[in-house]
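Q: Can someone sanity-check these two? First one:
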Amino acid sequence: MYRLLSLFTTILLSTTVFCEVKLPRLISDNMVLQRDTKLTIWGWAAVGEKVNIRFKDKTYAATTGADSTWSVVLPALKAGGPFDMQINGSNQVVIKNIVIGDVWVCSGQSNMELPMERVKEKYPTVIAQAANPNIRQFNVATTYDFQRARKDYDSGNWQLADPQTVLQFTAVGYFFAKALYEKYQVPIGLIKASVGGSPAEAWLNEDALKAFPQHLEMALKYKRAGYMDSIRARDQQVRNDWYQTIWQQDQGLHDTKPWYDPGVNTSDWKTMPVPGFWDEHGLKGVNGVVWFRKDIEVPASMTGKPAKLLLGRIVDQDSVFVNGRFAGTIGYQYPPRRYELPAGMLQPGKNTIVVRVINNAGRGGFITDKPYKITVGEETIDLKGDWQFKPGTTAPPLPSATFFQYMPTGLYKAMVSPMLPYRIKGVIWYQGESNAGRAVEYRTLFPAVINTWRQQWHEGNFPFLFVQLANYMETKDQPGESGWAMTREAQLKTLSLPNTGMAVISDIGEWNDIHPLNKEDVGKRLALWAEKQAYGDQKVVYSGPLYQGMKVQGNKITLQFTGTGSGLMAKDGRELKYFAIAGADKKFVWANATIEGNKVIVWSDQVPQPVAVRYAWADNPEGANLYNKENLPASPFRTDNW
């Protein structure tokens, strides 16, 4: 009897799950539909059910097929709105506040994912003025699947931009949309489908991975039953054991007084300058917990009010205490440390700030060239300088966990597949940092992403606009090799694909932060490419100088460029920097360079018979200053293939 009841329940559920009309989450209130193209509206219902759609005074009919799916095709529509859509089957669904405009997919890794909230202190006016119901975003939550291509998302809805909701918009995407809306006055919809740290292969389907056997092999492993469960259990056990050990052994938590107590005796604590890394101050190779403490004098004028505590960035995790009271915590190294202190937490006179830092692996400490201060209104207390410190406990490095979302094809199946029937204008893409160690492979891997998406969307060669990697890491005194430069070159080569575009941003990065805060120029430079590739503007200057060819003339090399706009210039008005030249011995030296018309002449007395030139060929070519007069930077390049 139990088995019969179970079977009956299963049959009942399978026949009623689509008895009512159900829509994918993308087709919902506040959605943006792509203008000037036929549109597919689809969903699910009981097999054979008749479904009618009423939109803009016209009715469209469909019958649900054997797979419980129905769809209708709407004719191309002009920009406008808002409109409502009524869908009738055994039930009725009304979708409200629809606008018709341009839909852009915003994908890649963390620099596309990074929300306006992370840059709110840089762009307070932009955020305050963000009320625009014609700029909207659908956020696809991070998820992955190795078994099947999903048909829908588990969550998500369309949000209209306003000063509150915009904080969760992709910052690059918002500035991109803002620039396009200001020029064309057409509603812009952003589908944000980005995952921090994701490599390109995670965004490919299995067919595309056949060209990359090592990635296909990995994808097939993750399809095996129980394979992920065993890895997840192992990783979780290792992580739990590591954190439990440092918790149990941390003297700062289990001493007579916890070390965040202002009354702790610190006579045996050492000092080091903050910001900085503790391996330079007697703790080389130390992982685990280190406590930091600083006493400051706070004037009465800064008390009794809310305050902001800025602690730059900390590697890897921190918990902060002010006068013995918990003020906040952040669990990984990349977010800026911005803690809101309630009124009353600061007191007149002496105040004690304590930071418990957990470092999992590598160098622990405080990232330099970041803000370290307390602010109340216009008053500020600088927190840089000597801090006391003492290890709470040491531990071996925490073994790396498996990030399933980084494995081949997982993101494609879960985050791209559900939106393939949705019509789009194009894609903006910011990714490559996670593939920088495999730059040669990226020459084919990244184009494979573009080609695969275009094939699967069945919309032809829609615009695919991407961001070249920013300048990052420490600068070098001499010319040399660079994985990031090689990756930029792979991105540059991808411009050979039709209807692509590349925003060069090697002038706006931050040497100590893989997430530069300047997202406005990134969005605007992508928008310039969109004006050309997506909107057909033949007059816009959309690119900075791009290397085209060279000619050796005696002891000099003449370089030709496209993207010269109204002329070449040195950004700061000084002589050109970051050109290097080499002879047949392949030894590069810094070179002289000068602009002549729309060409650049390069030479060095050390290289009488030059063979090759490189420009901005470094992880961080800070100071590279070749631009066009429209203030767009030249892409880094090399003339050799060494």
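And here is the second, same format, sequence then tokens:
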Amino acid sequence: MTEGAAGVAVPPGPVGLSAPSPDAQAGRMRERYVTFALAAADLLIEADAQGLITYAAGTFEARLGTDALSWIGRPVLDLVVLPDRDRITAVLRQLREHQRVLPQGVRLATADQRPMSLTGLPLPQGDGELRFCLCLASMATAPPPIKPIPDKLSFAQQAEMRLKEGAGPNSLSLFEVTGPDGLVAPRSDIVSQIGAALTEGGQDGRIAGELANGRYGLVQGTQAADLTDLAARIQSVLSKGGMQATVAAHTMSLADTGLTTVQATRALRYALAAFARGGEDSILEEGFAGGLPGFVASATSRAEAMRRILAERRFRLAFQPIVGLRDRRAHHYEALLRPIPAPGFPLEQTQDFVTFAEAVGLVEELDWAVLEAVAQAASRTRNVRIACNLSGHSMASVNFRERFMRMLESVPGLATRLMVEVTETAEINDEEAAVTMVRMLRNRKVQVCLDDFGAGSAAFRYLRLLNIDFVKLDGLYVRGALNNERDRSFISSIVELSASLGAAVVAERIETEAEAQVIRELGVQFGQGYLFGRPGALPDAARWSD
């Protein structure tokens, strides 16, 4: 692979043909990235550190009545209505601090004040200057449906984003809705109405979300609404839908917690996971009666229990095959963590286990424990690779990298039996260190995969930065590919882009033959899902025989 002028790896030209010039290669790559970005957005903008537009593409003529070129040199603030400019200012501040911006609503400065979803990424330049990439995509005029927790661009992530902003939210309110038969699980349209009712009248960018059936969250800013009023709104929506229910409400302050931003966001993430899992009882059991600081204080003993669990390797691994879509033969296996409940530490679900590790700062120790277990399994295999998930935090850790390299040097042949899947569970904060890690792994023949591609707004950035072997496509696109032309186009584009960077594509969560067929026809080479095998033990053929 060679390095293009834009900093993106591009394959050399075919033998016997004249290769395009570096300028031509860079131009093609820029056009490709712009095309893919506009597949999910109406307006694509690059701005400088002062918030002035330096590049513009998209439907400016249709949306704003003037062409994209006329916006060069104008402030980004001019794009939105006056009441939303404070939000744009907050977005620019966040980008200057090298943080990505997850989707949030703004309104264009047009007569109809068209609602748009805004996302953004910082784009450091080689000359040390800072640029910002902003994408604006159309939203429905009506409030969009609120998403369940499995959606990677969920209420939980948006709440964390608000907490990282300079002003931040003031409070988190949690609601549990029960009826005669337990938790109430209304239709999706009623869930959307509940979200609209919770955010109605709030001019401070309130966000609401469904955390689990019958459980909802609301992040509020300076204009905190009364809990009794909010509970009554939920009851009113349910009553109009023909359902009677009782609404229990709980609130905690997010302002002046005395915690660092990292501590506060980790604690918030765990609070939402705990409430989704067990409601208010779980919140109280986890120590959140005293808010986020209360959890941090009460988690000390459980953190020590988790540290012992990791040190003693009290967990197991399950292995799921990734197969070639044409021959259905196993190409490699992904190792999946399965916690074993222990006295004083009853977490059984993998996601809860990982979330707690992140909340108390043990994710690097968790990753190392799993990596060692995977390495032991891989050392006993015959011509089989096993993929291990590593968080962005560990990928950027110098200490973790040095330990990993010593492991590879001490076990001959291990590198050719290992793969690494880079997850976005913890965002990569030190991108330069992560690039170094990937380069060192690949130099030692450890293949690297970018996990859950398409699930988060940083996916294209990581694909551009990290020289990888595989891209794992988020399962949401697999489900949508059967009936959604836009999802099919996205998948085809990712296949083409990945191929140009020398990477193959894996599609996850394939459960039916129909899904496997359409994914294969779109050019995806590998698949993973229940259709090909559930997580379990490594097959005998993959192990050394005694």
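A (reply): Looked at the second one. The CA atoms of residues 236 and 242 lie 10 Å apart. Residues 261-285 form the longest helix (25 residues).
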